[in-house]
Design goal:
The chain is α+β, with helices and mostly antiparallel strands. It folds into two domains: 69 residues; 42 residues. It has two helices and five strands; from the N terminus they run ααβββββ.
Amino acid sequence: MKKNIKKLLVAITVMAFSCLGLTGCAGTGGEGGGGSLYTMLMLVVLIAVFYFFIIRPENKKKKKLEVMRSELSVGDKITTIGGIVGKIVSINGDLITFETGEDRVRVQVTKWAVSTNKIEKAE
């Protein structure tokens, strides 16, 4: 799916550059203002495609990550952006303390360093 989106973005970018006069565009001869209208339309389409396929999904992903980090609680199993896995022991503001295994080594990180969260069920 992502490969298809990238191919679509490349194709639209090539079309937009060709219509800007870098390689020539069908219908943009010397007949007047019709060519500039087509160029402006292609630029608007290009901006819309970039917004809907790149900017908007990235903002949704950031918002989802923010919500996950704000809902962390003691007992959750987390993975940091560095790949360290552990179980949350305490949360003090933006600092999270978690244990990293049976030897009970405790590590403190800030909330933004957490990449995933798996809620552990009490047994």
